[in-house]
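To close the section, here is one more complete example, presented without commentary so you can practise reading it yourself. The ligand is S-adenosylmethionine.
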Amino acid sequence: MQHVRRSPEEIAANRARYEEHQRKGLEFAPKALPAPSPLPAPPVDAVRVVHQEVIPGGWYWSTRIKRGETLRIAQQQGFSTVTLVAWNAAETSERLNLPDTVKMQWTTALSKGRVIFSDISQDLLDYCRKAADAEGLLARCAFVLAAADRLTGVADASVDAVTTRSVLIYVKDKAAALREFYRVLKPGGRVSLFEPINVLMSAADPDRFSGYDVTPVRALAAKVQAVYESIQPPGVDPMIDFDDRDLVRHTRNAGFPDIDLELRVSVKARKQPIPWEQFLRTSGNPLVPTFGDALDRSLSQQEAAEFTSYLRPLVETGAGLERRAVAYLTAAKE
Ligand SMILES: C[S@@+](CC[C@H](N)C(=O)[O-])C[C@H]1O[C@@H](n2cnc3c(N)ncnc32)[C@H](O)[C@@H]1O
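Output:
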């Protein structure tokens, strides 16, 4: 590179020109920040659209914009930003360098916190998007349809925290999910999980059906229970194949050096009393039939009547044990 020497007079002249430009610019500059743009941006009236084009990711495009025309750039998916440089055609030293502007907004958004909502259910993501929109928070949210054990679309070392509630209980390969959580976390990032530990709940009381002592109708209860076990085999189904020690082991194996797990087990002598019809419409979790369906599938009419006449008073008076076991796990990546 050739170094251009300037005389003190030239330096002073350049400086004066620069200051004059700055002074003129400040005369036109707004004296207060504009109000935030509405989100999402209001739709453009179709008859007023002069030109519309889809630019592939990583591609470039140029155009001439006349006074009074507006350019709108919208990103339908992905996380990257647009680089835009605009020159005044009549005075090319006057320009707008959007990469800097966008980076600034991006940084500001980051400091306020951004959330990636991820789930395997598109319905749930849509619901979540609506809720974020209603709060005016869409600009700080991203929605990723992915399984917890394969977080495709979330980059390595890109997030500060991963948090889930009652999600790993649905995931067969919990070890892989914890490896994914480790992968997407930045160094120093943290994971915070809440999981029910089902094997320490109803499965811990074989003489009970949903917490009610069914010893006098044991054979009938076993038939109803068999419906559930055929759908969710104990020790095999993701909901009942793990306990708190497995969560710690998977977390450790994923690479987290510091782990904290708090197990809370509570047993209450009474359950919430509920009307029998309501009990028949409930189920232990969303993946299994309701108690009413399970009764229909497993018992004859006479058996169902016998089972009902025994269980109904217990359900309606709350004469059963309420057992809960939940684990809170936190861990940090080095
Ligand atoms: C009991 S709900 C919990 C929802 C929410 N976390 C809460 O606490 O209200 C379980 C969620 O896990 C999601 N899920 C099930 N299997 C999953 C998987 N393999 N990967 C990611 N999410 C999964 C379901 O779609 C559902 O939204």
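Once you have examined the tokens, check your reading against these statements. Strands lie at 85-88, 91-97, 115-119, 141-145, 159-165, 185-196, 208-209, 212-213, 258-268, 322-332. The radius of gyration is 31 Å.
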